[in-house]
Design a protein that fits this description.
With 709 residues, the chain is α+β, with helices and mostly antiparallel strands. It has three domains: 2-346, no CATH class; 535-628, Immunoglobulins (Immunoglobulin-like, Sandwich), CATH 2.60.40.10; 633-707, Immunoglobulins (Immunoglobulin-like, Sandwich). It is globular and about 85 Å long.
Amino acid sequence: MRKTTWVGCVVMALLAGCGGGNSSNVALPTAPAASSPTAATAAPAAPATVPTVPAAPSAAAATPNALFKVGAATVSVAPDAPVYVGGYSDPGKPPIQVSNDPLEVRAFVVAKGDKAVAFAVVDSTGWFAEYQDADVGNGQFGARVDAAKKLADRGFNVDRSAVMVSTTHSHATPTLVGIWGLMGSANKTYLKKVHDAVVQAVDTAASNLKTSELWTANGDIGSIIWQNGQGTDHVDGFAVDARMPLLWARDPQTGATNALYVNIPNHPDEFRPFNGAVTQGFSADVPGYVRHQMDLTIGGVSVVGSGTLGRQESPGTNADYAEVSYQGQYVLNALRLAMAQAAPLKSDTIGSSETLIPSITVGTSPYNQGLLNLMKYNAQAAGLGGSNCNSALGGSCSVPRALTAPWCVGSCSAGSNGSTSLGTYATALRIGPLLYISNPGEAFAEVNDTVRGEVLDAQSVNVVGLAGDFLGYNWAPSDYTTLQFGSGDFAKYNVGPDLAQLTADGAYANAAALGFKVKPAKDVVKAPYDSSVANLPGIQFYSTQIATTPTSISFYGSTAQPQSNYQQPNHVLSAIAWDFGDNSGPVTSNSQDRLSHAFTTPGSYKVTAKVIDNNTGNSRSWSQTLTILPTFSVAINAIVSDVDSTKTQLSLRPDGGQGKLLAARWTCPDGQTPQGLTVVCNRLPRNGIVQVTAWDGAGNSASSQTSVP
């Protein structure tokens, strides 16, 4: 069962055709859904205006890539009362209300004509598609339906497939799913608050659309994804997904950032709400850190979600916010470097598709039948479970995922017999040549790589993690052994053996419905394994910076036991031996210790860390090349407008640094504070001072000032 909405390219007077080579609009059939809203007749809200130099007659030709309108918004989801925590095994911990940093819903809306698509990201470990009893409609599915209605009210011809809702998977948030923490009355009230915040965020973003160029790129965060060693929830010898896709909405006249949407393919589970006896509070973890820093520097509203999540653990183990900031600095640097390489989309196609995955097998051991049992025993009006819950399952039941079709089919009540399957929806959005696919859980890299191999003409297939539902890990059972999984909880939190393949198949169907060229037949999800690493120790590090001006860089290095040593006595591993590539001499450190190294001269440095297994003599190393850039500075160009002599056009001349400017924040003599790479200040008062702070493609900042002529 699939429904699709589509808008083809708009042929502009100055263009011979669309970026994809089509010269006419393409209409795909739309299968009506029961919850599909009816498009309103009112036109979409007009975009906010941005002061610019008066346009020359050829302004349209100067900005041929201003193809979209984009809006973004932020809504707080701070708890109004103490609520139970989700994300770690803390069922005995009390409910809390305090937050270390803000919990939010952020939305990013892209529009063209009467078509729109929306991303909404919630700070939560996970959120079911649908719920039981009085909470029906408060899941991701209901939020998508209601947000789509708001878009329709604003004149957009959309249905629920146009709204993709996801969670960050931060492990320091109030539980919405009853796993780890209980779904008591306060958490159910909070569930409704989150639903309402998603609807509000999408609606507010759609009310504040700005004409934009959409720039895109894929960053690389490979060093912060454990892939060179075995450990809890990361598996040695298998490929990871290090691609960090971004959509960057920029003002076509000034180059200022209107909004940013990025997916980080890494588990944000560093910060813990309870750190020993200390209650640290809730946290948005690394996604929260990144978006806050981007708001302060690059400007606009940054919407940060997750990408591929399964097996995508980071090296850090410290549970406080200091480690979050270190990891956040690395991701920020990688993100800005990607933005410096971004290019504008030249195709304005917008579309959405939804496919029902109706029969997800509920597997026997080692799969998580416990999830289904907890759902069954969370009976109607039973609070935290039915009367037989504790005796049947040995604990409180509070997993209120829906037990009605299509979410559960067959034996879906306590005491019933027969087969049971779960259902959910796979969604996909098309923005120009980009395909965004949903993972209704934590898919392993091979699931999403399968889709990338099946879709033949997409510029990029981008993953939205935990979008639409929360069904645990997605992996192909035949590809892994108990030894390889080791101490991980992949089997415990996997609902059945076919979820990975069905997730990939749903993406394949959606890609075809959206007009992408796909292979004639679907591929089988398969994870190749490098058996040569099984007897090797693990080692990996990440640095807080990949490219920067001369400074001291912090490194976090970790080691791990060989994969083949699972449940055996630990081998004795050496200290980490470091070579910073600058002839500074060898340095050693202990595993999971942080150390700093100063790079004083611009250049390229290959940093290598090595560990030796003293029991076997086997060794292993991890390397990363760091770029030390020349000192960054900017000078101001000030030119009196030849159209309006009361205004001065301002731009920048960068020197050193990464070489590309991402953003600039100005203060005009009259107190106005425009943003952008080319802005206008009033010339009154005469001979006043204009000030600017600018950021380059590595996040280096520089300030300057001059008198306005």
